[in-house]
Amino acid sequence: TIDPKVKTAGTNTTTNEQSKVDADKNAEPKETKKYIFKRNGVEEEVDEETYTKYAQKAWAADKTLADAKKMQRELEAREMQLRQFAQALEQQKTLKPSQRVQQMLEELQDNPDALNDFRGSIEQWLLERIDEESASDEVKRAMRAEKELARLQKQKEMQEKQQKELQWKQTVEAQRPQVEKMIIETLKTGRLPLTEWNVKSVADVIYNARVRGIDPKPEQVAQLVKEDRIEHIRALSSGAAKQLIEAQKNKDTKGVINAGESLVELFGEEIIKALRVYDMAVYESRKPNMPRQVVETAKAEPQEKKSYQYRNYDEYLEDRKRRALSTQV
Predict the structure, then answer these.
(1) What is the pLDDT of residues 69-81, one digit of tens each?
(2) Considering the entire predicted model, what is its pTM?
């Protein structure tokens, strides 16, 4: 027979050991869950935080693409309407005047407001015709002369407008080589890279100055372009910089990283590294002038000299025997 007490004790021991094993398993660090994300045609194994970040960027890109496709569909629909309108105009040219009027009246039947406007215009025209037909010969001649004068005035204004446009084009073509030379000289003087944005900015400054009767110098134009570019960059980066500083105050490391990535994306890795080098150089240059805290070192107290007494060989042997006997059990 088996003693129940022994059995119970054994069972409790087994249960306790199993509990310890389960506790050890629970205490083991859990492995970070990995995700597979395909970016730029290459699969990457990333953690949950990186996967969420990539997914958010992908969602934003998909939304932008969807908006672009929607805009493209709207433009295509608008283009189709314009094409149909142009075809309708071509068809109207082949119709007789009476057929055009009849077609226009049929189209106006579906639009009461437009029909009322058309009726008002026709009534005004009929009243003018009635007044003209019922007037005397002198009044008719005066009315015709007035209409002819208005026509000639309109024609003169049109010719003056065309003449001004032609003169403007000729002036632009004549000044183009000079302006191109000035743009290149301005870029070289201001050490500005030859980019589309810089060329457009220089051209805008020169144009605005010429309109006001000012002939600016290349260094003046370069300075204005630099100031405009600096203001533009500050406007773009101020939001991210404020977010980064606010996140640092709140000790939000993730917020600091996200805002910093926006700045890196805006300025580029090289600019950020150059700024770090600049900060370190400024720090090193100011380091000798920084106030230093003077700490008084404790003075070492003179130690007492110990007197040593040398034993002879017999005393050494006696001491060794005594130690050997004390270690024996």
Answers:
(1) 888 888 888 888 8
(2) 0.35
